[in-house]
Design brief:
Order of helices and strands: EEHEEHHHHHHHHHHH
Number of helices: 12
Strand content: under 5%
Distance between the termini: 59 Å
Helix content: 40-55%
Largest sheet: 2 strands, antiparallel
Radius of gyration: 25 Å
Shape: globular
Structural class: mainly alpha
Number of strands: 4
């Protein structure tokens, strides 16, 4: 029934039936029912618990399996950045931008159209770093500026004990939490791995899943793959398929292989595999670029100094 300007929506306490605009004590978990006061909420708790838990689980799954937005386009060529291929994009420690490999390896020109000598950032025109020490120095400047990716990278230095940093899992986790709160989803992926493997913390598979879910919601394909793997091990094939389908749309070839394996073993339908294959092919079409194809032929020895 449609409402006119004179209609008034009145809240009703699900425990005692009281009506009125002052019935606004909402269930903290499901946010679906209201009470007139805390006493009614407490009294109704046991009756509401089962339905509340069911609704919370439904809302969680809606958020969890929602397709996250794709990575931003390359700021230069404006073509979608690849999600998984680490050689397909570069994080530039000079300016904090993520640029596709095609633009990184393409010639750089000045404002007059003259080719610029030397290797420079295609975005900010600053000469690329030529040593590990220079990369770390630039990273630290970005960390001070609050750059989430730089904070994440610093965390990996501590986790691995590389680039002049002593291995310190506690410091690494602190930095990953900081980067995650700033929106860098892969930081939560690493936290999940730490809990899964017991790196600097006690093994806790529930916490691992929790952080992988945060990462997956934020767009981490790696975390999404891990969640699908965990669901598959638990025998929850439908949920595994849903996770892997989401990650395939974002270009995860590993998830495509998993669905192919399920199909070969009779746990997925031909329609499932066909849909997955079409989604992966569509992704490849979105990221394809002649410049990126040319860049793929370059020596990987140059990769580190474009970071």
């Amino acid at each position: 029934m449609s409402l006119n300007n004179t209609d008034v929506i009145v809240s009703i306490c699900v425990n005692c039936g009281k009506e009125g605009n002052d019935v606004n004590n909402v269930c903290n978990k499901c946010k679906q029912v209201k009470y007139c006061n805390a006493a009614c909420k407490k009294k109704h708790r046991q009756k509401h618990k089962k339905e509340c838990d069911r609704r919370v689980a439904e809302l969680h799954d809606i958020e969890l399996f929602k397709q996250p937005p794709p990575l931003e386009d390359c700021p230069i060529c404006m073509i979608r950045l690849p999600c998984m291929d680490p050689t397909g994009k570069k994080y530039m420690t000079c300016c904090g931008k993520v640029i596709c490999s095609g633009c990184c390896h393409a010639p750089v020109y000045d404002n007059q159209g003259n080719k610029v000598d030397g290797i420079k950032c295609a975005f900010c025109r600053v000469p690329s770093a030529t040593s590990d020490e220079e990369i770390v120095k630039r990273t630290m400047i970005l960390v001070e500026a609050g750059d989430a990716r730089a904070i994440y990278d610093l965390g990996t230095y501590y986790r691995e004990g590389t680039d002049g940093f002593h291995q310190n899992y506690t410091k690494a986790l602190e930095l990953f939490h900081r980067a995650g709160k700033l929106g860098y989803a892969e930081a939560y992926t690493n936290i999940g791995v730490s809990y899964h493997n017991g790196e600097g913390v006690e093994v806790d598979k529930k916490k691992a899943v929790h952080y992988w879910e945060l990462a997956a919601i934020g767009g981490s394909v790696a975390a999404r793959f891990n969640l699908g793997h965990m669901e598959g091990l638990a025998g929850n094939i439908d949920r595994a398929l849903k996770h892997w389908m989401v990650s395939i749309i974002d270009g995860d070839a590993g998830s495509l292989k998993q669905i192919k394996r399920l199909y070969s073993n009779g746990f997925a339908t031909k329609e499932d595999y066909t849909k997955a294959l079409q989604a992966y092919q569509a992704y490849l079409g979105e990221i394809k670029s002649p410049q990126r194809d040319e860049a793929a032929a370059f020596s990987m020895g140059l990769y580190r100094y474009y970071r």
